[in-house]
Amino acid sequence: MATDHADHGSRGSTGVIVAAVSTSIAFVALSLRLMTRAFIIRNVGPEDYVVLVAFALSVALTALICVEVQHGQGRHYSTVSPEELEQLNKAFWASVPVYQASLTLTKISILLQYRRVFVGTGIQRFILGSIGVIIIYGLWSVLSTAFMCSPVSYFWDRSISGHCLSRLGVWFSNSALNIITDIVICVMPFPVLNKLHLPRKQKYALMAVFGLGLFVCLTSILRLKSLYDISVSDDITWDNTPAAYWSSLEVNFAVIAACLPTLRKTISRFFPRFFSSYSNSDSNHRYLPSRKTKTKSRADTNGFSKFAITSHAAQTDWVQGLTSQNVTAKGLSSEMDDLKKKPSLSTCNSDDGITVVGAEPEDGRIRVMTTIVTHELTPSPSELDVSVGPSSTASSPKERHLV
Question: Is the pLDDT of residue 7 over 60?
């Protein structure tokens, strides 16, 4: 049998190549994310630091896989010396909690990003509850794999007395919880995104970006077979290679899935039409569901328009367009110049309308919301009560929320 095993050679190089390539792709995605958040949006949040630590653990996992291959992983058990086997098992023991910790931190990073962009008491509570569940589960998964054997050294040195928990039970229970939490995190944004008042193409594009985490679920499911093989294997050094590279693929796909939704600003610079309906909002803008309004008579209708003034030319175009609708808007250009100098939100009232200008210090743009009132359309005074919250979004129930 030893001769047959030797004829098969080694497949450890496959694990190293898969781990190295997937880690490199995750590094590119993370670099683009940090560049976007630090230099384009200029607003690095806690979720960015969390996913950075998760990627560092992924790099550590790749390094441990290389150590395992160096000491015999990918070769048949009969061709591995006892000294090599001990070093291999030490690296293998360390790789499992590192894998679990990386996945846990990536999920927490995604949930923190959800908490930043999605508005609503219900979903905010659900996100916080999910973070709590992920933290508790993550601690269990790390500790249960790190202290699977008592004493710990019994994992790689069976010459001493000790005992271990069932590998099949611990690994499969953790994998099942991983898959369940992955599905919940992927599906969580869909109800909110479905309510957005957006063109269908852009709405589906957003859903596709947020749904990329389903590939992580698929990877977790495909990894189950390799986990079963290694749990019941008599040739653990040979059968552990698929489990190793599937684990590396899973953690790196998770990092990539966490980074892609934050790259909208970078993508829009190279593919401006892909996110054309979002060109006037940054990636930190909170996603607000559109609100349906009841059909009203012409006499009770008021109109809201929202603009992002990014240059003098855009300001001029805005004034010219508004002038064609309302002749009283001719003097707004000078009023806007005065209002832009004020650090806080400003409101300009006139007999024919209200203009609200708010500065956004993140990118220096000006958000203008104007209620246009003509002599033909005469709303009641209560309908002209326009308030703007901290996120430069009007809170009037009649506003059409755009993202």
Answer: no
